[in-house]
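User: C-alpha cells for Coenzyme PQQ synthesis protein D, please.
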Amino acid sequence: MAKEKKDDNFLLYIPRKKHTTYEKRNGKVYLIFYHNKPIEKFLRWLVKKPAVSDMELDNLGSTVWELIDGQNTVYDIGQRLLEKFGKDAEPVYDRLIMYLRYLNRRGWIAFDRGNQE
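Assistant: Done. Predicted C-alpha cells:
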C-alpha cells in the first residue's frame, strides 16, 4: 500500500530574497533597480529615463521584506505582523500570501518548502 502524500502547507514555506539591492530610508525599504540590459538602455534613451530606479514599500511591505531572512516561515511572518500592526494587518494571512506571491511572480523572492511535517 503506497503512502498518501499530503498537500503542502503554504504557511510552512520559507521565503528567501533573490533581489539583493535594496536600502532602508526613514523606516521604509526601497528596492533598487538598475536598468543596464541592452533593450532597457535603448528604451531609457528613447524616453529619457534614469539608469537606476527605486520602489518604495509601505510600512507593512517593508516589515515583510525585513522579516524575509531565509529562516522565518510564512506563518512566523504573519505572527510578527499581528504583533506589530494588530488589527491593521487583518486579514493577515490572506494579505501576506497574496503579497508574497506577487513578490515571487516578479522574481524578487523564492520559496523553500520548509519542514512539512
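User: Anything notable?

Assistant: The mean pLDDT is 88.
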